[in-house]
Structures are given as C-alpha cells and as structure tokens.
Amino acid sequence: MKKNILLAVLLCCTFLSAYADKPQNINGTSYFLPKTGLKFTILTEKTTYTPGEFSQYAERYLKQPAGNQPETTYRILGIRLSTYGIADTSKLFTASIDSKHSIMSIYKDDNGVLLAVNDRPNPPAPDNSFKPAPKPARLNPNDFLSQDILSAGSKAKMAELAADEIYDIRDSRTQLTRGQADNMPTDGQQMRIMLNSLNTQEAALMQMFNGITEKDTLEVSVDFTPDKEVEREILFRFSKHFGMVDTDDLSGVPYYISIVNQHNVPANSTTIGKDEKIKNDAGIWVNLPGKISVKLYQGEKLLDNYETYVAQFGRTEPMMGELFSKKMETKVRLNPATGNADSINTELKR
User: Fold this and answer.
1) In the sheet that 328-334 helps form, which strands lie side by side, from edge to edge?
2) Taking the model in full, what pTM does it have?
C-alpha cells in the first residue's frame, strides 16, 4: 500500500514539473514577428518541335528546309521579385490582454505571425500568378488527305502529291482574292468561310512537312531568405535544353544574386526604441524593416536591380504602451512580409 502511495506522489510531482516547464499565457497571447523572404517568379517558355511525317521531303517539294529531329528548348521571358513573411522564432512576444489594456483582438496567420491588433488584417495580395490561355485544338492532317495521297505506293509519292495539293490550295486562294474563281462567293461572309477553309487545309498539310512547334509558358519560383549581405551567390541555374536545373548542375547557366544593406531604416513615431524604458508595456512590438539593394546577374551580365525592405536588416521596437491604455482605442495593421505597421488608427475613448 505504501509503495502505491509513493508511486502516485512521484507521478504527480513529475507531471507538475513537466507542466511548469511549458510557457504559460494566462493574461495574454503570444505571437511572432516575421522574417522577410524574397520570391523570384520566373516566367519561362518551353518550345517543343515534333518533325512532320514528310519533313525529309520539305526542301525537295516545297523548297524550304525542315528539321528532322525532335527538339525541346527553354528560354526566360521575365523575372519579377516579391516578398513574403515567415515566422521569426527569435522574435516571440506576448500581447497583454488584461484589465489594464484595451487590446481586444489579435489576428495571426497560420504560423503565428502577428497581422493586426484590434482590427482586421490587410486583405490578401491579389494572385498574380500566370494563367495560361487554352490551346487551340491541333489539326489532324489525315483528315485532309485525298484518296490519291492515301493510296500512293511510297512515302515519297505521298509527299509529292501532298505538295501538289498545297500548291492547288494556294492557287485557289489567289483566284478567290482576285475575283477570278469559277465559283465566286456571293457575299463577304461566304468569302471569309471559303478562305478560312483553304487556310485550314493548307496549315494541316504543311504540318506534315514543317512539323509541329508548340509553345508552353511556365511559371516557376525560387525563394531566398537573406540574413546578411551576399556577393554573387548562385540563386539558380537555367538550361536552354532542360529549363530550371539544380544549382550544382553545370548544364545550366548560373544566375547570381547580390544583397547590399543600404542602412536605411525608417523611423516610427509610435515606437519608443527597444533601449528606452517601457511604460505600461502592452507587449505589442513591430519591425522597422531595413532597405536593401538586390542585384540579379546572368553570368557576368547584370539583369536587374531591385530595392525592397526586409525585416532582418532593420530592428524591432515596442509600441508605446499608452496607445493601448484603457483611455485609448488603437487599431494596428501589420505588413505580413515585413512586420512593419502599415496603418495605425488611434482615438480617445468617450
């Protein structure tokens, strides 16, 4: 019996000790301020060439060369820079929600980053991601081949007859546009229908010689979180034949990033400076982000130079406790990427 009682006491002590090690939050709510990440959104174009069935006869019958091997190539159309916020675990604070302060609501994101105090957060940024347009249906050349072409004894003969058909289509279109066709259309609408039909037939047959070239626009992103100045660090590599590749894949051309701290931190009249004495501390801190210069290079060539504000190149300061006293009604919205106060509205309570 004594052994059971002793065991129960030991278990109880162990539970209380473990519970006491966890941070308690009786009169407030904890939150993080953000660290700023850089997001490079890269718009690329993928070009895929598929040779036509008669590509080897294109120069013989149409007097124009055509590729005989399939090929896929990539190129960069544009790069844009945006910022986003991630929880900075070194900046954990607790807002005072008690009878001494007027903090009634705290809004945080899913990662615990503070977004607003006594107010709704800023509306989410619009989705600027690229949305490809629907592709037109691909023509099927076999739908436009005559019986003579289909029954030809060899591919060379089929190519010759198909080329003759293309020349006949071009001649018919020329006669229509000159008004010399045997069966001229009666009005403009009928003319457009006939010309569109001829153009479609020619395009389908030309596919068999020139092949098919398809272009797809793709959007990829590369994230970079600067914690210090950097000089020409590899951000990503891009290959003409494979698109985005790993940073250690030498098949791709290196794109470098440089970060320069401009030592420009805007002041905020509602903060008191972290080294000053805090009166009536409400536990509301904000970031004063610093300005940086971001340079992007392709090899030795400077592609672009951006300027933006990031939290980790600035400082963090508490807001005046008086702003959240019982006599004041203060609403604050924070920038989700930098943790700076985007808007502060204060008025005396009546």
Assistant:
1) 106-108, 114-117, 328-334, 341-348
2) 0.80
